[in-house]
Design goal:
disordered C terminus, extended, about 10% strand, single chain, three-stranded antiparallel beta sheet, mainly alpha, about 110 residues
Length: about 110
């Protein structure tokens, strides 16, 4: 039996909008944990999804399998070109988006 268990995960890049106050709290929590902001969001959502019993019940229904993707997931184009939408939504959002980068710059 191996001494280490390696769990490979696949990450996607997604664009989301947050209220400004929520984005600030994400940055503050990331600083508190000494972790990247995207990991804070990922783990917080995973925690909520796992603890919500009604949502867990919903996931076991046929309706859950028919949900249309609405998250704006991005992937790299061919030859590393500009990212392309994965879920087929080619529309560009006209609303201004604020970028919060909690990584420390040196």
């Amino acid at each position: 039996m191996p001494l280490l268990e390696i769990i490979q995960t696949t990450h996607v890049n997604a664009t989301i909008r947050l209220e400004e106050s929520t984005a600030a709290l994400v940055d503050q929590y990331a600083a508190f944990l000494h972790a990247p902001a995207d990991e804070v969001v990922d783990k917080a959502l995973a925690y909520v999804f796992s603890k919500d019993r009604d949502f867990q019940d919903f996931l076991r229904t046929p309706e859950a399998a028919r949900v249309a993707p609405s998250l704006r997931v991005r992937r790299l184009g061919q030859n590393g070109s500009a990212p392309e939408p994965v879920n087929g939504s080619a529309k560009a959002a006209k609303t201004p988006e604020v970028s919060h980068d909690s990584r420390t710059r040196s």
